Amino acid sequence: MQEGKKRAQNEANAPAAAEAAPAQDENKIIAERRAKLAKLREEGFSYPNDFARDQMAEKLDAAYGELAADELESRQVKATIAGRLMLKRVMGKASFGVVQDHTGRIQIYVSDDQTGKDQHAAYKHWDIGDIIGASGVLFKTRTGELTLRVTALRLLSKSLRPLPEKWHGLTDVEQRYRQRHIDLLMNEHSRWTFAVRSRVVQGLRDFMATTNYLEVETPMLQPIPGGATARPFRTHHNALDMDLYLRIAPELYLKRLVVGGIEKVYEINRNFRNEGISTKHNPEFTMMEVYCAYTNFTYMMSLVEVLIRHAAQSALGTTSVTYQGRTLDFGKPFARISMSEAIRKYAPEYWSNAQLHDRHFLAGKLTEHGVEFDAGAGWGALHLMLFETLVEKNLVEPTFIVDFPAEVSPLSRRYDRNPEVAERFELFIDGKEIANGFSELNDPEDQAARFREQARLKDAGDQEAMYYDDDYVRALEYGLPPTSGAGIGIDRLVMLFTDSPSIRDVIYFPHMRPES
RNA sequence: GGGUCGUUAGCUCAGCUGGUAGAGCAGCGGACUUUUAAUCCGUUGGUCGGGAGUUCGAAUCUCCCACGACCUACCA
Predict the structure, then answer these.
(1) Does residue A54 sit in helix, strand or coil?
(2) How far is the CA of A92 from the C1' of B31 (A)?
(3) Which end of chain A is more exposed for a tag (fewer CB within 10 A), N or C?
């Protein structure tokens, strides 16, 4: 790090850097720009950092964009701006340019009689992509565009690599994901998408703060990866000489905090799952998990509903969004339906409640649909599989599915009236699971039994089954208050809010294989 | 994992049934003092993703590999 820093500084200061060995992918355009940089260095250019701007493009437009030309002229508004040169139009003794900062764009007008011939001549040789600063007075062109009549301008940072074409921009999805910096420069929609993402997270945090939840951070490196059924990433701690896992969920740690008296707690952070990659799955993804003592899953369902509604409103200013051509309304109450009812609703024929609880019946129907399952799978696993096969894709509008089989919900409290079913819900939108929550299992002896069953499945070859977590059971033995909790998939929520078809569109740097 | 499609200049794309690789933008040189994807004249730029094969001759046909997209199966 230190070494690298020193080297970078030397390069920046040394004119000899222009002779440095060029990278493999250098072409003529880059060579020409390096030559320009070398010449600029001879003239004293040193990547200056003492330029102070006093205006942003968007603010200037908001303040003066509507003003009449002569009114603007009479006010003689001075401004100093800085940003990246995105367009350049040279016309002899005068030139135009478009400078982009993080708020937007503003046009500049550079001419011999305003800056002097030399400065204008220098500008003509700057490149699209260069970062510049400019001072001047605002005016309106003949066509009414707000423009800065430049009296002084400086090159602040030289761009050696050409930007994509001004009209089509960068459209190649692979390059947009691999070189997100270019995507962000070129594509307004990409900038908007990530701005929405930030506002969603901010909106969630604001809401939680006003309802007195405490935000915490729990371990990403865990000796026993718990809280979900998923394959973990493994890593190694050298000093301790022990294997650790990247967390698949923060759940068990957050509930330890509830045992410790933090009764309203949440975390927004990354989870890591060593599983497939798809338009809906990235190996690391962002999850919000929340727990509230002295409530049950019905409270948590309502909280999730309100949170999502609030996130939409604060990030987008509306609760109605269009996703891939379909309208989703987060403003009206989310539907609530039990898993059994949902299966019956979407089943091709009438199935009785008894049939839906008959393992052999379910196994037969799954086979009819060509679904493979483990011979040892119980009623609950088959019931869930049938739900996933028949129902999930149909749940377009926000819908809570409640009453999951306890067998597939090893951390959920059972119903008193039916111990085969858990007080658990999942929220589906556009066929995707967006949230998952339940009344937490706070009976340490039941939890121990469930872990034993998971350990048995793991021994039998189920790589996603949970580990027995002795330390967690011991925490429960001190007494976990009746508690409900939920997890919300932030990436997927942002996909819905931004009409993004792929999770890679809402993650700055999605995982990609290395370029060969 | 399986299937389909794609990869040509810095970017966006043409390139037919095999016959010396093209355009626009960007770049470079020139003209132009209110342009708007500025315009006009001239011009540079390519290991056609990589490798092997068929052929007198391959961007083009065949095979293998890499990367990506979409569909499909699974975890959120």
Answers:
(1) coil
(2) 8
(3) C
Nucleotide nearest to A93 (CA to C1'): B33
CB atoms within 10 A of CB A439: 23
Is A242 within 8 Å of A223 (Cβ atoms)? Answer: yes
Under a CB-based contact definition with an 8 Å cutoff, are residues A316 and A310 in contact?
Answer: no
Task: Tell me which residue of A370, A410, A360 sits closest to A390, measured CA to CA.
Answer: A370
Q: Which two tokens stand for residue A461?
A: 């070859």
**Which amino acid appears at position A277 of this protein?**
I
- Residue corresponding to tokens 């040279």: A90
Provide the strand spans (E) within A364-489.
399-405, 421-429, 432-439, 483-489
For the CA of A161 and the C1' of B45, the distance in angstroms is 15
Residue A174: phi, psi to the nearest 5? -60, -45
Question: Does the nearest atom of strand B lie within 7 Å of A23's Cβ?
Answer: no
Each residue of A371-423: pLDDT tens digit?
A: 888 877 889 999 999 999 899 989 999 999 999 999 999 999 999 999 999 99
Helix (H) or strand (E) holding A75: helix A69-75
Counting Cβ atoms within 10 Å, is residue A275 exposed (0-12), middle (13-18) or buried (19+)? middle
pTM above 0.80, yes or no: yes
Q: Hey, is A39 helix, strand or coil? A: helix
Cβ atoms of A26 and A32 closer than 8 Å: no
Mean pLDDT across the stretch A244-257? 96
ipTM: 0.92
